[in-house]
Amino acid sequence: MPLRKLAHLTLLALGLLTALAGFFVAQLRFNYNFNDFYPAGDPDLDYYEQYAARFGNDNDYVLLGLEAPAGQTVFEPRFLTKVDSLTRFIRARRHVTQVSSPTTASNPVVEGLGVFNVPYLHPQEPARRATDSALVYRTPGLVGNLISRDARAVTVLFQTSPNLSKPPGDSLLAAVRTELARQGIPENEYHMAGKMVAQSVFVDRLQMELLVFMSLSVVLVTGLLWLTFRTWWGVVLPLVVVLGSILWGLGVMSAFGVSIDLMTALLPVMLFVVGMSDTIHIITRYVTELGYGASKKDSLLIALKESGFGSGLSALTTSIGFFTLMTSTIRPIYNFGLFTGIAVLLTFLLSFTLLPAMLLLLRKPQLRIPRETGHSWDGVLGRMFRTVLARRHWVVAISAVVLGLSVASASRIRINSALLDDLSQNDPVKLDFKFFERQFAGVRPFELDLKPAPGRSIYDLDVLRQTEQIENYLQKDYGLNFVASPVTLIKSVRKALNGGLLTEYRLPDSEAELARLTRKVKLFRKKPEFRALALPDGSEGRLTGRMPDVGSIRADALNAGLRRFLRTSVDSTVLQTRLTGSANLIDKNNENLTLNMITGMSIDIVMVTLIVLLLFRSVRMTVVVLIPNLVPILIVAGVMGAAGVSMKVSTSIIFTIAFGIAVDDTIHFISKLKLVLLKEPSLFKAVRKTYLMAGKAVIVTSLILVGGFSTLIFSSFDGTFYVGLLIGLTLLFGVVAELTLLPILILAFYRHRPKEIRQPVPLLEA
């Protein structure tokens, strides 16, 4: 079949597949589900899901903080009237299941057979303001929870339907903001926090940042391609190939029902810069052969033959680098690794089908400066090669010093994460969350499952006393600013039965009094707060609370102390407990981060080792290849340690991805060296020739990779910022190591035996 006809058929087939991919991409949606970051398959996750089915999720709520006007307190009648109006408005909204507000907080009093709820605040009776405020500050559970300690702000907390998705969540938040504006409350006087708020903001920003990053990457890569090839097709053809592979990759992801989230949003940018490697190696070799005077057909065949082996190996190692992220128990990282790895292989496929087809159909390009004796790059790379070898002792010495300092600095890296890790310190959303930590109980939920020993009830006096002991520890030593449990229920009932007097807010003194109280509990069982703290049959209870987001390192220390306390101070024959909750699950990710990273890196290193062993049958060569790729990883780890960057979910992927990408150039280099050694008996001449052949593509692809990843530093998400910065630095250090350490190490340690040279493979002299 004629080559031109084959090219037309190839383009037709690829066009049909691209149209199919476009169909699926049109159905792709953005999503951010906080629950996706729980460790999948973990027993604690199964336990929490069952616990949440009984008591409800601990993060299906929104906190609305309202600040009183300057110079006023929250007890001003006009301010309280606005709060009450907002409370009634929110309560009437769809998907709102419960609202807690200072204006709805009441002191229950039992008289006869009925329960009367006496409000703590009376906005319509200004004369009672002093009495009301005094009562509020004496009542447990109000100050620091619904009213700030300085009386300058209040919180309206509203529970929402379980796992509310973004569209209805956005509608609810928009309705609340519209009502706030209608009541004349400026944006600087209210604050909102909660899972639903973060979910809304994250998805909106993902959409905007994806557009910005892709635009910046296209502009940057276009400029670099133009400077490299100085031809329109040298710019357009790589862009067509890579954009096509992105479309295919997103199409596959959509076909499997996966949405774009905080991690998979990196796929297009990642693929755009990584996918350029194969096209640049092909076009660079193609242009080089044209410059030496070869025909278009011969130049293309030589470029494909020489690049195919190296590109295939590099695509394999890069995809393996992403596939190793599938060892993660965090679903977004798993999906990101799986579909980016698939997309890398699809890019390789397009590079060796779409690109050759387009080059065949184009006329033979007229190069600006045809040369038959070499290119200007040869002179630059030749001088660089001589300089590196002449100063090899300095190169090795400086590398050793930098490596030693980096290892020392890397030891300072800590694994630490927080609930809003990916937002910068000055982000408006994070500032709102900090407002609730500063003025109220905080935003980090706490959950402890309470199970009475067999034969006991959650309302047994011994069980309640043990629970109260745990409450006291949590408030004094653990840091909970708000706590509620079945103890809260019994104390509240006792107070209600004794005229609502605050002095009666305590546990009963005897079993007989407790029996009288538990009989009255049924009067309150319809109240949502009662249903949320104990099962109707008393077989299980819930201790819940809130605290500041102290970070996982501090949380781990607090949890270790809590477990010691529970083990030594709580009688397990009376009460059994288990720490659970969404925050606990997020903290658990940290236990897996190091293991996942080591597993991913180990798989990468093993695969590269096997590839080099198969190519050279030499353990020495394997070590020689690994060193220039591990050195940049260790240097960047040192940078992380020196800069105080913590290891967390978003940054844990950096080393695995960086190694998988950085090793690409090494694979290209040694695969070309293998071909050259089949004809060139001198190792020195073979390394020099390979250096000249691969050097330009290595430099250009590295510049594009570094430039492409550097666009991510403009992200408002800290995790994305560090992914861009640190992978970019790794690749920058990698190309330096590639062009300095690698040739030195090969010449110093590789033992090439010319007598083993077989029949040479035809190779056009460079």
SSE map:
Blueprint lengths: L2 H23 L17 H13 L5 E7 L9 H15 L4 E5 L5 E6 L2 E6 L9 H10 L14 E8 L5 H17 L7 E4 L1 H35 L2 H24 L11 H8 L1 H16 L4 H28 L7 H21 L2 H8 L14 H15 L1 H19 L17 H12 L4 E9 L8 H18 L3 E3 L1 H12 L13 H11 L6 H4 L9 E7 L4 H18 L5 E6 L1 H35 L2 H25 L10 H24 L5 H28 L7 H32 L17
Helix pairs in contact: 1-7, 1-12, 5-6, 6-7, 6-8, 6-24, 7-8, 7-9, 7-11, 8-11, 8-24, 9-10, 9-24, 10-11, 10-21, 10-23, 13-24, 13-25, 14-22, 16-20, 17-18, 21-22, 21-23, 22-23, 22-25, 23-24, 23-25, 24-25
Subcellular location: Cell membrane
Keywords: Cell membrane, Membrane, Transmembrane, Transmembrane helix
Pfam family, one: MMPL
Largest sheet: 4 strands, antiparallel
Strand order of the largest sheet: 2-5-1-6
How many alpha or pi helices?
A: 25
| Proportion of residues in extended strands | 5-15%
- Which shape, going by the Cα principal axes? elongated
Helicity, in percent?
Answer: 55-70%
Q: What is the averaged pLDDT score?
A: 84
End-to-end distance: 31 Å
Rg from alpha-carbon coordinates: 33 Å
Which ranges are low-confidence, i.e. pLDDT below 50, for 5 or more consecutive residues?
368-374, 755-766
Number of strands: 10
What quaternary form is this? single chain
Structural class based on helices, strands and sheet pairing: alpha+beta
